[in-house]
Amino acid sequence: MGQTGRLPEQLPPRLELENLAIGFKHKPIIRGLALTVKSGELVALAGPNGSGKTTLLKTIGGLLRPLSGRVFLDGKDIAGMGKRERAGRISFLFQGNASDWPFSVEEIVMQGRFPYRRFFSSDRASDRRAAERAILAAGLAGFERRLVTELSGGEFQRVLIARAMAQEAKLLLLDEPANNLDPKYQYMVMNLVRSMANSGQAALVSLHDFNLASLYADRIILVNKGKAAAIGKPAEVLQEGILNDVFGIPLVISPHARDPRFQAVSFPLPGPDTQG
């Protein structure tokens, strides 16, 4: 899963963050951040609540201006990109994307093709084919005419992933794509995100669940107190000392029961006498 299908190390960076500072009204949340994400990589973004994960994703995507530093996509500063160019290169999936409008699954997925269409133009054959491929890959065949207001949370999340697939963007920015889903849909959604990275896209995905990060991410960036507390492969970041320093709780790290290459992260046993 997360640690298969790697692409060669010599591939050029898709995303580069250069001495980036982010925040609001000149009050930095994260400072001095440097990071590269290559084509084919899935990088998990983790950290405590309020550490700036969503703000960072919005800044990378050009929705917020950085306080300082620069963001490069394929070597080009996103500050010099127009909205349509960014929309064709970057796909977003943020929390709170529930739809109160009775669009069909097919209509939502087709929204991913908007960056490539002229205003008021009809759907092109290439747009329909891209949407059909995305619907099939997301396991939504037969759902095309279903209204999204009738779907479960897990089903709707797969629709949003399919929209991102149809967009065919080179960079995916996903904010907690598996949040509030049951284990089945967490598994399905993260497999979809991993498959998109394996196809050559670069993905930066915020995750609270370290077990998902261990299974699916190539690297983890852990942010805390305005900086990157750790960046590295899951085994390098998912260490008891590092996580205790960041979260203030003695999380337990052990080898995954089915494959010791992966880490399993557990809560300490309940009760004050067992939290030593």
Question: Could you explain the architecture of this structure?
Answer:
The protein is α/β, with parallel strands linked by helices and 276 residues long. It has one domain (13-274): 3-Layer(aba) Sandwich (Rossmann fold), CATH 3.40.50.300. Helices cover 30% and strands 26% of the residues. The chain has nine helices and twelve strands. It has helices at residues 53-60, 83-89, 105-110, 125-137, 153-167, 183-198, 210-216, 234-237, 240-247, and strands at residues 13-24, 27-38, 42-46, 68-73, 76-77, 90-93, 171-175, 202-206, 219-224, 227-232, 252-255, 263-266. The strands form three sheets. The protein has a six-stranded mixed beta sheet, with helices on both faces. A four-stranded antiparallel beta sheet has the order 2-1-4-5, with helices on one face. Strands 11-12 form a two-stranded antiparallel sheet. Strand 11 (252-255) and strand 12 form a beta hairpin. Helix 5 (153-167) runs parallel beside helix 6 (183-198). The longest helix is centred in the C-terminal third of the chain and has 16 residues, at 183-198. It is globular. The protein starts with 12 loop residues before the first strand and ends in a 10-residue tail after the last strand. 37% of the residues are buried.
Unreliable parts:
1-8
The succession of helices and strands, N to C, reads EEEHEEHEHHHEHEHEEHHEE
> How is the largest sheet built, in terms of strand order?
6-7-8-3-9-10
- Tell me the count of domains: 1
Instruction: Tell me the number of strands.
Output: 12
Radius of gyration over C-alpha positions, nearest whole angstrom: 19 Å
CATH topology term = Rossmann fold
